[in-house]
Design goal:
four-stranded parallel beta sheet, six-stranded parallel beta sheet
Length: about 350
């Protein structure tokens, strides 16, 4: 039984939602695996604790009805009341847990969210297997959460068939439909529903406001309070901004293929799915050297220190103005991306299920 609760809230339009959808679809046909997706009966409130609690009744009812050999918690939230010895849990990064454990004695650390995260850290460590989406997350699981390394398995994410370096006849129309003006543009992909300081969009806006960067910043993602905040900040700093909202895979691939640069300015990334998708599309990538990104991108991306707006601006300026530099990096991407696929993710995940059984 696969926990589909990330598809019932704001996570459905973020990387975790894509992970759940693509993994579940790819599990079909895996030898010896019959997967059932279970989602909450009603949409939850958009808070960490509320969405966890709202998912539990439907997950427990699903387990009682299906009698699964294994329950897979897809976003670091083991199911209450189901044996931990028959649970697999995926952890995408440990940043919220690291903060909760570090702030244990503070007002922040003693909050409901802090207590919830510390409790989940304990429950994660009791699960039969813990899937880390990268080696960097695996190291954090053992070093920060104290998970037994013998229980951890690294299963990377993948990318879909739409993400290739082959242009589609409809690519040109995508730019017009997205409201992107003529000229080079810098592309960022994620969710804009709520502010996430880890994504460092303020640093990105600061970099785009630097002299000499006369490109449009395109932020692709589901709109919300964060898109409103960023719009105001861009207007105040003179940054040209386009917000096409959430787009389908075909349109997103077209935007990757024609970007002057794809930027990932995050302070931390457990895997870096937009980096992988951009590499598959032979898009030039500028990213921060954090988490899994250096291991994922190798020499196919320009890497800068996190939180350094001048360095980010310099790397973007070079990418936009030096065609040879841009092409040299971009052409390396597809070969790196070829090592990843959602089918491979499903194969490795099914192997983890078999270990538990």
């Amino acid at each position: 039984m696969v926990d589909g609760s990330p598809l019932a809230d704001g996570r459905r339009d973020a990387g975790i939602g894509r992970y759940v959808r693509e993994l579940f679809d790819a599990l079909e046909g895996q030898p010896g695996v019959t997967a059932t997706l279970v989602q909450p009966w009603r949409p939850p409130h958009e808070s960490l604790v509320a969405r966890f609690l709202s998912a539990q009744p439907s997950l427990l009812a699903g387990a009682a009805r299906l009698h699964p050999d294994v329950v897979h918690a897809t976003d670091a939230a083991p199911v209450l009341g189901f044996p931990k010895a028959r649970q697999v849990v995926t952890v995408h990064d440990v940043i919220p847990w690291a903060r909760a454990l570090t702030d244990k004695g503070s007002a922040k650390g003693s909050s409901v969210t802090g207590a919830y995260l510390r409790g989940q850290a304990h429950r994660i460590g009791l699960c039969a297997r813990v899937i880390a989406v990268s080696q960097s997350v695996a190291a954090d699981l053992t070093g920060v959460l104290g998970v037994d390394p013998d229980r951890v398995r690294v299963v990377p994410e993948g990318y879909g068939a739409a993400f290739t370096d082959v242009s589609d006849p409809g690519d040109v129309g995508v730019r017009v439909a997205a409201g992107i003006p003529p000229g080079r543009y810098v592309l960022w992909v994620g969710s804009l529903r709520a502010h996430d300081p880890r994504k460092a969009l303020d640093t990105l806006l600061e970099a785009m406001a630097e002299p000499g960067l006369k490109a449009t910043l395109v932020l692709v993602g589901a709109p919300g309070a964060e898109s409103v905040r960023i719009s105001a900040l861009a207007a105040a700093t003179g940054v040209k901004l386009a917000l096409p909202g959430f787009v389908d895979d075909a349109a997103l691939a077209a935007l990757y293929r024609h970007a002057g640069a794809v930027v990932v300015p995050s302070l931390q990334e457990g895997f870096g799915l937009p980096v992988l998708e951009a590499l598959a599309c032979a898009a030039p990538v500028v990213a921060t050297a954090v988490g899994n990104i250096p291991n994922l991108a190798g020499d196919a991306a320009a890497l800068v220190p996190p939180g350094d707006a001048p360095a980010l601006a310099a790397a973007l300026r070079l990418m936009l103005t030096d065609r040879a530099h841009r092409q040299r990096l971009a052409t390396r991407g597809p070969a790196i991306a070829a090592n990843y696929s959602w089918r491979r993710t499903a194969e490795l995940t099914a192997a983890v299920y078999r270990e538990v059984v």
